[in-house]
Each structure stands twice: as C-alpha cells, then as structure tokens.
Amino acid sequence: MRSIFTKAGAAALLATTANAQLYPDQSPLNHTCQLQQPLLSCPSQDPSQVDSCCVETFGGLVLSTQFWNTYTGLESEGQVLPTDTWTLHGLWPDFCNGSYTQYCDLSRQYDPIPSPNTTNGLKNGTFVPPYTGPSIATFLNPFGRFDLLEYMNTYWIAWLQDNAGFWGHEFSKHATCFSTFNIPCYGPEYQKHEEVVDFFETAVKYYKRFPTFDWLAAEGIKPSNCTTYSYSALRDVLFEQSGGIPFLGCTGPRFNATAAGKNSTDNGYTVLSEVWYYEHVYGRPQEGNTIPVNASSTYLTNCAKAEGAINYYERTNGSEKAPTVPY
Ligand SMILES: *[C@@H]1O[C@H](CO)[C@@H](O)[C@H](O)[C@H]1NC(C)=O
Ligand SMILES: *[C@@H]1O[C@H](CO)[C@@H](O)[C@H](O)[C@H]1NC(C)=O
Ligand SMILES: *[C@@H]1O[C@H](CO)[C@@H](O)[C@H](O)[C@H]1NC(C)=O
Ligand SMILES: *[C@@H]1O[C@H](CO)[C@@H](O)[C@H](O)[C@H]1NC(C)=O
Ligand SMILES: *[C@@H]1O[C@H](CO)[C@@H](O)[C@H](O)[C@H]1NC(C)=O
Ligand SMILES: *[C@@H]1O[C@H](CO)[C@@H](O)[C@H](O)[C@H]1NC(C)=O
Ligand SMILES: *[C@@H]1O[C@H](CO)[C@@H](O)[C@H](O)[C@H]1NC(C)=O
Ligand SMILES: *[C@@H]1O[C@H](CO)[C@@H](O)[C@H](O)[C@H]1NC(C)=O
Ligand SMILES: *[C@@H]1O[C@H](CO)[C@@H](O)[C@H](O)[C@H]1NC(C)=O
C-alpha cells in the first residue's frame, strides 16, 4: 500500500511540476546552475540530459534586436526617442535552425495586442486572448526596480503603442519561449513576476552591448535626410564591431519603386529600421556568456543592396530628447 501510495504521490508531484513547466521532463532539481558546467546553447541540447533552466535548451539562438524609428506616434503623451541611440526591441529565443515559436505559455499572457493572435500564426492555432489586466510596468513595483523602469522608459520605446504594452508583447510572445526564464527555474522561493523582471534586466544587458548608433557614427554613417547609404557599408561596420553579421531590416518603398531605382531589378526595401544581432550562449542567457554568430546566409537582410539605396532617416522634430539616464 505504502509503496503504491508513494509512487502515486511522486507521480502527482511530477505531474504538477510538469504542468507548471513549458517543456516536459525538466529536472526536478532546484536549478543551481552555478553547480553545473555551462553548456553551449547550439547545437541544441537533449532536454532529457540537461537542466533546461541552466542552458537554453530549445531556443538556443538568441537574438538581441533594436529599432531605428523616426517617431513614436505618442509624442503628445511624452513618449519620445532617445537622441543618437537605437532603441531596444527585444531578446528572442530562436531555435538553433533559425525557426521560432511564440506565445509559449498562455498563463503568462500580458500582451494587450497579441500579434499574431494565435500561437502558430495560423487560423487553426490556439487563440491568444488580449491582456486587459494591470500594465506589466506595475510588475516591477513589488521589487522596487524603479531604476530599471526608468531605463526602459528611456530606451525600450514602442511605435504606435504605449511602451508597457509593447514590453508585455515582448515578454509573452518571446520570453515565455525561453526554457531558462521558465517559472520552475526560480526554485521554491519564486516570487510572482520575478522572471518578468529578470527578463527585462537581461534584455537590457544584451542591448547595452550593441551600441549601434555609435558604431555607425564612428564610421561617418549618421542619420541624414539628404545622404543615402549602401547595405554593404552598414553590414561591414556592424559585423566588424559585433563579431557576427546581423540581420538588417528595412521598411518603406522598394528600391525598384523609387525614382533612383527605376528599372532596377533590386526590389529590397529602402528605409533602415531594424537590426538583429545573433548569439549562442554558454549557460543561462542571464549570465551573458555569449558568442556572436552570423545571421542566416539565406536571410541577412530585406534591404535593397544597390549602391546608395538606403535611407537612414533623421528623427522627426519633436520626437526625440536627450536621455537623462546613461546608455
Ligand atoms: C529544493 O528546495 C526545497 C525547498 O527549499 C528543499 O526542500 C529541497 O530539498 C530542495 N531540493 C534539492 C534537490 O536541493
Ligand atoms: C527547427 O527546430 C525546431 C526545434 O527543434 C523543430 O521543431 C523544427 O521542426 C525545425 N524546423 C526546421 C525547418 O527544420
Ligand atoms: C485574428 O487576426 C486575424 C488576422 O490578423 C483577424 O482576421 C481575425 O479577425 C483575428 N481574430 C480575432 C478573434 O480577433
Ligand atoms: C494548421 O494548418 C496548417 C496549414 O494551414 C497545417 O499545415 C497544420 O498541420 C495545421 N495544424 C493543426 C494543428 O491542425
Ligand atoms: C518591384 O518588384 C516587386 C517585387 O518583385 C514587383 O512586384 C513590382 O512590380 C516591382 N515594381 C516596379 C515599379 O517595377
Ligand atoms: C526605364 O525603362 C523605360 C522603359 O521600360 C525607359 O524608357 C527608361 O529610359 C528606363 N530608365 C532608365 C533610368 O534606365
Ligand atoms: C560570418 O561571415 C563572415 C563573412 O562572410 C565570415 O568571414 C565568417 O567566417 C562567418 N562566421 C561564422 C562563424 O560563420
Ligand atoms: C527625415 O525624413 C523622415 C522620413 O521622411 C521624416 O519622418 C523625418 O521627420 C525627417 N526628419 C527631419 C528632421 O526632417
Ligand atoms: C526640423 O528642425 C530643423 C532644425 O531646427 C529645421 O531646420 C527643419 O526645417 C525642421 N524640419 C521640419 C520638417 O520641420
């Protein structure tokens, strides 16, 4: 009787643990990662052989992403861009093969405007309900992390959306897919939303290592509404400085639809707007022991590659202000 009871108890305990976990079969240990060898995140580790709290076991290709926007759309509410600085977009856990998943834990859905609105981005996916609770910014209050909040309000700036809604989007769409920011990783003393604060801190940590504006400016590549730039020049500077070829994202008209690109076969976009830096990570991403890697050779950019095809626009007047907290 006793042995059956014990087994049933153990099974129930494991089931509870498994339910609280993003991926099945995680180690039941208390995840003291300092006691373990810091394994490399790619190629991906076998989840049955490693503690997925101590190495990014699924989304091992970590992307630190930034925006260059010229306005926010919420200037009237004081939401402006930091002068001479690209802004933080997010920290994403892509699979080692470059594909990715999203909205991995709907019990931590804090995104007011889920995009896409299903877990797989298709009609047959699980619906992601819009979040209507208190702003994710309030999650920092019990931890007293007002310095972090001020940093985020300076550098983690949304476009056509309030900043906190955007942070909720980044957390729920991407951070819930990291094995290492999963709630069981925080052990028995976990405090509600601890992993949210930890994710915000980690995203900031990575962001600070990639001063895109300064790297480009040092090579004379500065925002301009008169001059244009070439993709290859931007790529070369950022590769040299970061150690990996980042993905460069553009919006705006296609080159072949502009006057300068008339009759060109180059149909890439012409307005510089994003950069994604790729890394593999030893141990927990929180520790930041990374090695740079190149973006996928089949998806290095959607920008036009023709000479001088890219606009790196100046911010709109009134859309930026000098930051009062240091980068
Ligand atoms: C995990 O933490 C709990 C609560 O502090 C403790 O009772 C348990 O012994 C720990 N387990 C291990 C393997 O350290
Ligand atoms: C990429 O890796 C993930 C996770 O291992 C897997 O689910 C997916 O099928 C892979 N995709 C491709 C295109 O190989
Ligand atoms: C989900 O998004 C799709 C495409 O953006 C949209 O057509 C659909 O109405 C949305 N569904 C709901 C329930 O909001
Ligand atoms: C959802 O639809 C896609 C194609 O539209 C299909 O490939 C996939 O198998 C479907 N998934 C499920 C869970 O039905
Ligand atoms: C530019 O290229 C796109 C995509 O190849 C094509 O659809 C479009 O017609 C082209 N535009 C012009 C003006 O040639
Ligand atoms: C573009 O093509 C049109 C006709 O297809 C031609 O008249 C024009 O001279 C070409 N423009 C350039 C810049 O080559
Ligand atoms: C990244 O790309 C550069 C330029 O093509 C190449 O020299 C370098 O070896 C690549 N790095 C890796 C890790 O593949
Ligand atoms: C520069 O051009 C962009 C794109 O047209 C515009 O949004 C921005 O306001 C301009 N900046 C200045 C200072 O004129
Ligand atoms: C933006 O401000 C600059 C300098 O104050 C001025 O020269 C320029 O005309 C302004 N641009 C617009 C679009 O208002």
Q: Which characteristics define this entry?
A:
five-stranded antiparallel β-sheet, disordered N terminus, 7 strands, binds 2-acetamido-2-deoxy-beta-D-glucopyranose, 327 residues, alpha+beta
Could you explain how this protein is built, in words?
Strands 1, 3, 4, 5 and 6 form a five-stranded antiparallel β-sheet that branches. Strands 2-7 form a two-stranded parallel sheet. A hairpin with a 6-residue loop joins strand 5 (269-282) and strand 6. The protein is built from six helices and seven strands. It has 327 residues and is an alpha+beta fold. The longest helix is centred in the first third of the chain and has 19 residues, at 2-20. Mean pLDDT is 92; it is low at 1-21. It has a domain at 10-211: Ribonuclease Rh, Chain A. The N and C termini lie far apart (63 Å). One 2-acetamido-2-deoxy-beta-D-glucopyranose is lined by residues 262-263. Residues 122, 124 line the site of one 2-acetamido-2-deoxy-beta-D-glucopyranose (NAG).
